[in-house]
What we know:
Layout: E1 2-7, E2 12-19, E3 24-31, H1 33-36, H2 44-66, H3 70-73, E4 74-82, H4 86-103, E5 107-111, H5 112-118, E6 131-136, E7 141-148, E8 151-157, H6 163-173, H7 181-188, H8 214-225, H9 239-268, E9 272-276, H10 283-296, E10 299-302, H11 318-322
Parallel strand pairs: 1-4, 4-5, 6-9, 9-10
Antiparallel strand pairs: 1-2, 2-3, 6-7, 7-8
Keywords: Acyltransferase, Cytoplasm, Iron, Metal-binding, Transferase, tRNA processing
Subcellular location: Cytoplasm
Protein name: tRNA N6-adenosine threonylcarbamoyltransferase
Amino acid sequence: MNVLAIETTCDETAAAVITRERHVLASAVASQEEVHERFQGVVPELAARAHLERIVPILRKVVTESGIQPTRDLAAIAVATEPGLPGSLLVGLAAAKALCVAWDKPLVAINHVQAHIYACQLGRAESIFPCVGFVVSGGHTNLYHCHAANRWKYLGGTIDDAVGEAFDKVAVMIGLPYPGGLHLSRLAAEGDATAFALPRPLLKDRSTLNMSFSGLKTAVRYKLTGTGKQDFRALELSEELRSNLAASFQQAAVDCVVGKAELALKQTGLRRLCVGGGVAANDLLRQDLATMTERLGVELLIAPKDLCTDNAVMGAIAWEKIDQQDYSPLDIDIHPGLLRGE
Ligand code: ATP
Ligand code: MG
Ligand code: FE
């Protein structure tokens, strides 16, 4: 049997067909970078409209490519209903409900943040649970004690910007295209991470698993413009300064993420760390997490690079619910905000 998973929480329209054994029969992602690029950020209204255009072609594509016959071969339709942009979530949920009615299938509601961490389960036979789950993405930077697929406890997270958001905003300051995380990390590879002294907010505070990235972002801005109000967009920056600033910022952000992951492992006593979300594709982060977990003798699972940013394959988490017959009624609503814990 198979599940058809739908993902429209932000600005990627994605669908996938995944077998009970977690094999991917088909997967497609339509990104909207060209829609939002000139605004240097996702415009919610435009995102919702772009989902409307793309959702049916994407669904057709994965159903055709998978070779399944939906009424016969699908166990359920799964869709991310939280957290995300309201207009974007509504498009995916409405499509999922329509298919449930048309094909007489049960509906499975997925939490997108949990799905990001579940990407670590793909291609692995043994369960990833229990573990410390860490989602580092464009909208979230959250630590969880994951007891089981259906039991998550929020441990701490950013109190302001998500780490991916900080990457994207710093990328804009140094003149990189949107979304800037990947571009910034490429530029950083040519720079000196010790060139600029940047703050690592809350890193040394062992009493909290909360993090903060907005002060770091502002500190980068001050390196560019001083504390005055000068517009950084008017600055002529040398290649050396840009790459050094990118490298220094990246190291500071990664230090904060790795430091809190280590503290979460120590506080919970858990022996496995699972990391997902767009920023988990960052090479320096992957490297520094490996060094830290090796030192602690803890198992490290990071989502495969192609499953870090938004996709529907991580919707395989739906199988954990299908196995429990944990279905949702067809009148369920979206939950744009994050439900943090139990
Ligand atoms: P959320 O999952 O919290 O709702 P989102 O879905 O928008 O947010 P993702 O698609 O998981 O976020 O990740 C996108 C983020 O990942 C962007 O901020 C992007 O800049 C960042 N990112 C992608 N690749 C890299 C990289 N190599 N290094 C750093 N950041 C990266
Ligand atoms: Mg995106
Ligand atoms: Fe995401």
